[in-house]
Amino acid sequence: MTISTSVDDSVQEIIYEGPVSIVARVQLASGDGSSPTQCLAVKSSTTNKRYAKEPHDILREARLIGSVSHSNIIPLIKQEFIERSQTLRLWMPYVPFSLSDLLSSPTFSPLPLISFSFSSFSSTPPTPREQSFLLLAKSIQFQILSGIAYLHQTTHIAHRDIKPSNVRLTDAGCVQIVDFGVAMRVVGDEEEEEGGEEERGDMWAETRGRMYFQVSTGAYRAPELLFGPQTYDAFAIDSWSLGAMFAEFFTPLRLVSGEDEDEDEYEGRITSDSDSTSNSDEDSNPQIAPFIIPPTVRPTDPRARWTRDSLFDGERGEIGLAWSIFKIRGSPDESRWPSFNDLPDAGKVSFIDAEPTDLARLLPNLPPSTVGAAGVDTTTHSPAPTSVASTPLDLLHRFLVYEPPRRLRPTDALHHPWFTATTASDQPGGMILLPEGYAAPSTSSANFIFSWQNKSLGEVMRGCGSFLRVES
Length: 472
What we know:
Layout: E1 12-17, E2 22-28, E3 38-46, H1 58-66, E4 78-82, E5 87-93, E6 97-98, H2 99-103, H3 128-153, E7 157-158, E8 167-169, E9 175-177, E10 184-187, E11 190-191, H4 196-199, H5 234-247, E12 253-256, H6 269-273, E13 291-292, E14 305-308, H7 317-329, H8 368-371, H9 392-399, H10 410-413, H11 417-420, E15 431-433, E16 447-449, H12 457-462
Parallel strand pairs: 12-13, 15-16
Antiparallel strand pairs: 1-2, 2-3, 3-5, 4-5, 6-8, 7-10, 8-9, 10-11, 12-14
Helix pairs in contact: 3-5, 5-9
C-alpha cells in the first residue's frame, strides 16, 4: 500500500500523548481526489536512548508488528524515520473504538440498569438483553484469545501489556490488538540470544536473566512482576493479564461525577471497598451490586459518566496492587504459590494473611444464566483440568493462578467449554458470532455464526450503547 507522508498539520489530531509516544489521527486524501479520505493512526516515538524510557522500544515494536499477520493484530502499513528529530513513525489503520469504551457503557451488561439490583434476575432462557451481552462478550473474548494465541504459538511473541485500551474494535466488531511497545519475542524456553536485539538495531536488549519486570499496566500486571524478577515466563504474564481483563467484563459499573477527575476515587473500587471487611465476616458482606451510584453523584448530572471497576487496584503503587491481589486471591503460601520465595523481593514486605475470596461475589455482571450452571471453586490455585464448567467464571479464574506454569494458556482457552459447549439451537450460549469476512478457525469445535436474528456482530455491538460514534 502506498501512502503519502506529506500531511498538513490541519488534518492531524493528537489522540494520545504519553511519556513514551504520541499517537495522531491523520486524514489522507488521494492525490487525484477520486478516492474518499483515508484515516490512519501514526505513532511517533524517539529512537534516541537519552530520551527514551526503558523498556519501551519503538524499533522493536516496528520489527515485531511487521513480522505478523492476523485478523486480530493491527497491521503495520508503513514506517518512517525522521532523521532530524531521531523519531520513528509507525503508520497503521485508525480504529477509533476501544474495549474500554464498550466496558464503560451501562448497556453492556446482562442486567437492566433501571433495577440497580442483581438478586431477582435469573433467566432461563436468557432475556434478549442477556443474549446480546453473551454474544458480544463471547465474540470479543474469543477474538482476543485468537490474536494472543497466534502471537504465542506461531510467532513466539509475548505482548506484555494486555489491557482494555490496547484492544481496539472496528465498527464491524473485529478486535485489533495494538501497542507492541514492550512486546518481546521468546524462543523456546529462552529469550532472544545475547546481543541479538542490539544487532538488529533494537534499543533495549533482553536476555534470559536480564528481563525487564517493569512491563504491563496497573491492575493487569501479573503478581510476580511486583517482586523484581529478571527471569520469568513472558507468556504467563499475558495469561494473567487476560484473566484480569476478562474479569472486567463482569465487574460493577460505577457512575462518577464529571467534575471530579480524581481517578483514585473510583479506580479499583472493588478492592478498596473491601478494605474494611475481612474474610471472617464474609457472610455479612453483601455481594456488590452491578450498578453503583455513590450518594455524592447525581444521576441527572449531564457531566456524570459511567466507568467500569477493575478487579484489582492498580492505582496505589506496587505494594498496593500486591495487597489488592492477595485480598482476593489469597496470600502466597506453599500450596498456592510454591515458587513465591524464589522471587528476589519476596521477603522485603510482609502482608497480613488473607484467604481467597469467591470471585463470583465480585463479579455481579456475570450472565445470570451461567451463574448456576455448575459449581466453580474460584478459590483454588490448582484448578482441575478434568472439572471444567462451561462458564466465563471458570475460564477467567484459570488465568488468575499464582504459579505461572499452572495458568491457562490462550491456545488451550480457545477450546474451553465457555466457547465450545452447545445449547439449544435458538439460544446464543453455544454460538460465537464473528465479524463479517472473518476466517473461522477450522481447528475449533465451536459453533460459529455470522448473523444473529438478522443482525451482524457490528449491529449487535452498536446496540450496546452510544459509545460508538461516527468519526468525522
